[in-house]
Amino acid sequence: MDEDAFLKAYDPTAFERPALTVDLVLLGLSDGHPAVLLIERAEHPHAGRWALPGSFVRPDETLDGAAARVLRDKAGFDAIEAERTRLEQLYTFGAVDRDPRMRIVTVAYLALLPEAVFAQVEEENAALSAARIAVSWAGEAGGPVAAFAVRDRAGHEALPLAFDHADILALAILRLRGKLDYSDVGFALLPESFTLRQLQDVHEAILGTSLNKPAFRRRMLDRGWLVPTGAREAGTSFRPAELYRFRKPL
Amino acid sequence: MDEDAFLKAYDPTAFERPALTVDLVLLGLSDGHPAVLLIERAEHPHAGRWALPGSFVRPDETLDGAAARVLRDKAGFDAIEAERTRLEQLYTFGAVDRDPRMRIVTVAYLALLPEAVFAQVEEENAALSAARIAVSWAGEAGGPVAAFAVRDRAGHEALPLAFDHADILALAILRLRGKLDYSDVGFALLPESFTLRQLQDVHEAILGTSLNKPAFRRRMLDRGWLVPTGAREAGTSFRPAELYRFRKPL
DNA sequence: AGAATAGTGTCTTTCAGACACTATCAT
DNA sequence: ATGATAGTGTCTGAAAGACACTATTCT
């Protein structure tokens, strides 16, 4: 049986196709802690639960294109912000019953938002809320991830996520953690200029561990990706730290 | 505009959906070199070109399930072999014009086959051929990958790949390379028992570099994943190397 | 001056690369 | 014995962890 015979036997127009969507994990920092932008579902299925922003993929757009459209239409990014935001494909989720309405396969994307953008989007877009992420460290090899509402975290109650979006979120954190050390993702969450302490805090928040200060500074400075701005932190009641800017390696 | 309004506006049953397929990158070693199993397309589109084995995703199966089905039906794996083979999702390709017939989005999977399985499948399944992979190292950051027929490599002419399958193959090699150092993928290509030299050869073939022998041995043995079998290599005209078995870390 | 954090000097340990050396097997 | 590869001992240098120390700014 060769491929063409197979294609005839399974003529796609004659059979039902799964629906295809994209879902976006929009990560940022809220109070120095990792957080994600979520939409509260108003109607069922999963009414009252929180979902990642997403959309169906149209026949005439790429997957990346669909993800970029969600960024504009559902997260309210303007063209410039959307252009600047780097969307990275994360994984494709295809469990048969992941949506109770019908068979839907979703391609998950991950984007890291600078603190200012993250806060602004959450403020301007009433449909979106920032939810702090809490990671359970059961097995050290990447346990389950729970999301908490960043505003209503007095009781530390978990925000219920819709569909399999908790799995998607967990994978996003793991991906981020894996790339933290050898890529420039650590800078994507920070504003234009930042201190080394802020950078270290971001790394520690994502990794869930504490890092050695001199070693961290050495590694970061030796890479040559940091340019001192000459300016210093303002508004502290102690010695202000020097501000650095991230410059992509040549 | 909230999600439900959006869902109403884009009722998926009212609009055309992309078709969804899975494609498998079945990697193995041929003569110590990385190779992939390909199917020569008999009819157009892309007649005469070589394609990764794949299939449409059925409504009642997961993506992983569809990939496993291709392994059995198109690659001719029996149930036991298919069970043993670990399929890993690689990436989802969604360019609008990647297939000339219609809009098809494909989820690519990667599997590593032990030498014996690789050779056996190629021999028994007339539709499949092993093609050696050649990697161009233009930019050091992962340049284009070309596939050569392993049998007809006298002239070193590139095998033309169908659709965007060259891109898929290139990404598979990059993924493999990235995981080689911190995972156990290096063992998946080797037979049950193997020498440290064979293991090093596999690593060098995938990385495209030569490695330091004492350092390599130290790293591998210190990980505690290797168990000496007590037996030794046979059939050499020199000192036979000790054979090791891979044991998963506890 | 005191408090609080920024930033550095240095010792130790760990580990990869390099190189030379010894060990062992077939012929 | 010879040839060829397996396998190891050891030196060196690079880099991380630990710790203590100095520096700087605000109140």
TrEMBL record, chains A, B:
SUPFAM superfamilies per the UniProt record, alphabetical: Nudix, Winged helix' DNA-binding domain
Family annotation (PROSITE patterns): NUDIX (PS51462)
CDD domains in the cross-refs: NUDIX_NadM_like
Domain of life: Bacteria
InterPro entries the record matches: NUDIX_hydrolase-like_dom_sf, NUDIX_hydrolase_dom, WH-like_DNA-bd_sf, WH_DNA-bd_sf, WHD_NrtR
Pfam families listed in its UniProt record: NUDIX, WHD_NrtR
Domain Nudix hydrolase: 20-163
Name listed for the protein in its UniProt record: Nudix hydrolase domain-containing protein
Originating species: Methylobacterium cerastii
